[in-house]
Amino acid sequence: MSGEEGPWTSSHVLSARTEASYLKLHRCMGSFVFDGAVFATGFASDNGLYAIDMQSPPSAHPAAKDKDKTDPPTFHMLRRLRIPMDQMVTAVAAHPVSHVIVCGMQTNALAVLGPVASDESTTMT
Q: Which top-level group of life is the source organism from (predicted)?
């Protein structure tokens, strides 16, 4: 067994420890953007931006038809969206004036996501 490296040798344990601390360092906490309308975050295990639409329309509660009960509306499912990115997203914020999301990336690059600008000549009638 001399010269053989098993799964529990010091180099493998050190590598696993380094990988865990690297992912913890680059963990994205996520944030509410657009006045709380969307929660956006990245995951250390994936190269993508994840967004949850917090403004999904509520469905009527079955007992809401009964005038005696005043149960609030319930949310059956919030809309979720995954936007593939080139790198791991480490920070998310919304631009205060423009309707764009600014993402900090794994290599300290910035990615700006927003609506595509429409050509004014095609929208004029």
A: Eukaryota
